[in-house]
């Protein structure tokens, strides 16, 4: 279907859909935002087409208290300053996101304190969940199926550990979850996972999971989960826009295995759950052959964000890997911007995962969009870019029932997708999350063309006509938010690597490897070089040179196989023994000034 035909279909759909009842236009978006209050004086900043009227401060406990005051402060500043020049407006945003050395040091100290409090079991924004897994030797063998559930994409790998620090992928498949699966109940999510897993086929057309053969699966999960015994995994929290609140505080393995049975996989069982940051770290450690380097941490930096780290509860004592749930670190609130406050208020989990909302791929594009949306109120930039146009209203209707069902009708699916894509492009700055982090990467990539020609082309595809001044401002805004993401990621590693809880925190004679997986790290222009550059003022040049960010593709799934080998050493190529019960926690002294629970 040609470009002209696509636009023609889009226009026809737009004219048709905007004549539908207003309630259907607001759709799911309004219901999601109705519980996320906004500041009355700045309702133009927070989805004005939905008519949000409530003040943030009127919902105590739902929005972080520091965030609740940011919008009011922004309103007062706007009233005092009046109109700004474009340069003043952009420079103000750059200053607000810059993070001074003093602010970084403050956050580092607070992060270390929260690590300590989390291990002690005291109130902390960091959960510090032990994996109870020892370090792999690289000699482990066996065949292990792993289901990795992170963002919208799920992967299923069957991996053989060869016993010589290498792995071989024997089979693989992937599927994507629908929006309703992500935002719906936990029961719906698990049912969708089971059905999609059953439908996966290999290149030969045969199912990847043989329903006739007993199969034990390791589940690598991006959520906060704690194994408390044989086949019991308690869901502590979700992220990345997932809902699943009906499963919080409950075992998720039993309902997942029930979903497998309902889907027809009667002999398939998930036997253990490992956080994906732990699996990434385990895979890099399994592959490591050098004594001059030590794999200490795992980093997921894609749709979501989290870090795992090795912890020794006593000096020179036994080491285990902890899932820190770093994305939940909330002390960043005091150094946030008005755009962070708006994003948090509109999210599915206001007041939670504040660091993740400033770092990860799910949110970077939305922060840029919110800035572009708000700038016309204070300066002469981006006028008309974020209008709630006929096209954005049409796209809202088209992407919701009953029209979304058209995508499932074979004869209409291509036309539906083409029209939806055309409407989506025209609504990039008008609709929540209309600007993706991939879009931000495209904006960052144009740092050499005359007149920022590639950004001009990017905007032209979205039917936005821009001046050079606007393109320059757009790129500076994107750089500001991405550079802040870099500094916050570096802050976490600087704080944790120098914490006395982490092995060899005072020894820097060997490389300290951070195993990384995720699209933001892999694909965002300049991100990796900025990580190394911004770490220097935090650790010093000598120590920073010893920190190695090692891209570890496949870490969430192949690393799950390593975790499987540590939990059920014989793998799936032999008769499987029952999974051993995890060690019973016992209270032990740690250093001289606190206590904690450990295996």
How does this structure look, described?
With 599 residues, this protein is α/β, with parallel strands linked by helices. Among the domains are: 1-29 and 390-426, no CATH class; 129-279 and 554-598, Nucleotidyltransferase, domain 5 (2-Layer Sandwich). It has 21 helices and 15 strands. It has helices at 3-17, 22-33, 65-81, 86-97, 101-120, 179-183, 186-199, 253-262, 276-287, 338-346, 356-359, 361-374, 390-398, 410-426, 437-445, 453-460, 468-497, 519-523, 527-539, 541-546, 555-567; strands at 129-130, 141-149, 153-162, 167-176, 215-221, 224-229, 232-237, 268-275, 293-301, 305-312, 319-323, 511-517, 547-551, 586-590, 594-598. The strands form four sheets. Strands 1-11-10-9-12-13 form a six-stranded mixed β-sheet, sandwiched between helices. Helix 5 (101-120) packs across helix 17 and helix 12 packs across helix 17. It is globular, with a radius of gyration of 25 Å. Residues 1-61 and 573-599 have low confidence and may be disordered.
Key traits:
5-stranded mixed beta sheet, disordered N terminus, disordered C terminus, 599 residues, 17% strand, 15 strands, Nucleotidyltransferase, domain 5, globular, 6-stranded mixed beta sheet, 21 helices, 42% helix, alpha/beta
Tell me the overall shape: globular
Biggest sheet strand line-up: 1-11-10-9-12-13
According to CATH, the homologous superfamily of the domain at 129-279 and 554-598 is ATPase, nucleotide binding domain
Put simply, the count of helices is 21
Rg over C-alpha atoms, rounded to the nearest angstrom: 25 Å
As a percent range, the share of helical residues equals: 40-55%
Structural class: alpha/beta
Give the CATH architecture of the domain at 129-279 and 554-598.
2-Layer Sandwich
How large is the share of residues in beta strands?
Answer: 15-25%
Q: Assign the CATH topology of the domain at 129-279 and 554-598.
A: Nucleotidyltransferase, domain 5
CATH class of the domain at 129-279 and 554-598: Alpha Beta
Write down how many β-strands occur, each being a DSSP E stretch of 2 or more residues: 15
Assembly state of the chains shown: single chain
Low-confidence stretches: 1-61, 573-599
**Could you tell me the mean pLDDT?**
80
